[in-house]
Structures are given as C-alpha cells and as structure tokens.
Design brief:
Elements lengths: L24 E3 L5 E7 L4 E5 L2 E6 L4 E5 L7 E5 L4 H4 L1 H10 L3 H4 L4 E5 L8 E5 L10 E4 L3 H4 L5 E3 L6
Antiparallel strand pairs: 1-10, 2-5, 2-6, 3-4, 4-7, 6-9, 7-8, 8-9
Amino acid sequence: MDFQKLIETVLIYRKSEMFKLKKSLEDYSFEKFNIEIKEIGKPKELTLGDKKVEIFEKGMYEIIKGNPDKIKLKKIWATGKVLDANSSGRFFRDFLSNRKGKDGLGVLYKVYGIGDDMYDYGYFTGPQKESATKRKYFQGVPVDKLSQNENTISKPIVNY
C-alpha cells in the first residue's frame, strides 16, 4: 500500500518513468516469529484440492512459544481479510473450515504447497471447542524478508 486508506484520490505527475515515490522505510520485525510446532504422533494423510494434508489429532502435536527467530513461525488468525487475501487463506476457507464434523476438535492441519516462506508447508488449527469460529494459521518469515537486501518494509505515505 502506497498511501493511507483515508486518501481517496491523489494525482501524481512525473517527468520520467524512473521516478519512484520516496517512502519511509523501517526494519522488518521478526518479533512475532516465536512459535515452534513439534509433531509427536503419526498423522492421518489425505489430499484436499491438489494439496497433500496431514491431520494431527489433539495430543499428537505441541505448539511451543519461545524467543523470536527467523526460522520460527508466526501465529495469524485465519479470519476476515486473511481468508480472501492470499492462497493459503482461500485454501483454509474452501477445504478446512468446515471439517469439524469429520476431524473433530483440537486437530492441527499441515498443508503442503502453500505459503511464501522457507517451508514447503503451512499449519492451521482446527477448532479447539465446539463453539469456536476462529482458527490459527502459522507461517514462517516470507522468503523475500530473509535476504539481507529485503529486510525493510516501506510505510504508506501519511495523510496530512
């Protein structure tokens, strides 16, 4: 996003195609990447869509919160915009969100072939209790943020 969402119309004229807006940069924070998932038991395997999925029942995995590290995972609530904004959210919405009756409560899904991080899989939790509507998605640091050159993010131009 280049501009704050409050700005409706901005006209910018340039003399050259080479012109780039000067935006503030800040270091990409790895602070929220503090989750490890320990797989304990042998999962049930199946294919949903075109993805291999492993289903760990309650007690067959452990979610461990520790110190931040580039090789750890970040917890993201799989709700709202996340379900439409990226392919992993859409996969969850289309294939995993309604499996409570088949897989039960407290399961962990390991889905191969999703995400843009260093891992070739992503994790999703199933509902932990009968009335639960929200689920969690665990993802690693995006690949482009792992390289030294891409360790910053640009901030939107603020509204004055």
